[in-house]
Amino acid sequence: MFMTKISRRTFIGGSAAMVALLSTPEWAMALITQPYPRLKIANIKDLKVGEPVSFNYPDEQSPAILIKLGERAIGGVGPEGDIVAYSSLCTHKGCPVSYSKKRFVCACHYSMFDPAKNGQTFQGHASEWLPQIILRFEPRTGNIYAEGVEGLIWGRIRNILKSSKISKL
């Protein structure tokens, strides 16, 4: 393995420069924000309580589920604040999750997540919550759009892949 020796002065100087760079709000935000596409998922008139709508977001390799819960939810949109969406990949090993009986259930190891509480894990091996899709509801048209992801999609180091192609609306 090739290792380069650096002096203490070089290390401290580089560290100070990095701290200065990251303490500038514009630079820090540029490093942590990602350009999410805006995607129309559904119209509120087509949703029924407890019936999931499958879609892909933020790209074609990222399955997700939109659900109208029938009860107010954290991060919920719509007139009742009860429409939420989540990545449908379990945070334990990436197995698919499905919506059943007011919860998301992992088909592989039976981790369970609460869609009304930010996708919080309440049973099983998963130690992280399901990534929640950030939604926007437009009252004038009734359209529901995905506009971002809160949390990291399983198996990724970034939610946005460099080659992501998804139609923007």
From TrEMBL:
InterPro entries, per database record: AioB/IdrB_ssu (IPR014067), Rieske_2Fe-2S (IPR017941), Rieske_2Fe-2S_sf (IPR036922), TAT_signal (IPR006311)
EC main group: oxidoreductase
Record-level Gene Ontology MF annotations: 2 iron, 2 sulfur cluster binding; arsenate reductase (azurin) activity; metal ion binding
Protein keywords: 2Fe-2S, Iron, Iron-sulfur, Metal-binding, Oxidoreductase
Keyword match Plastid: no
Highest rank taxon of the organism: Bacteria
Keyword Coiled coil attached: no
EC number from the UniProt entry: 1.20.9.1
Domain Rieske: 50-144
Cited CDD domains: Rieske_ArOX_small (cd03476)
Coiled-coil residue windows: none
Gene3D superfamilies listed in its UniProt record: Rieske [2Fe-2S] iron-sulphur domain
UniProt protein name: Arsenite oxidase, small subunit
Organism for this UniProt entry: Sulfurihydrogenibium yellowstonense SS-5
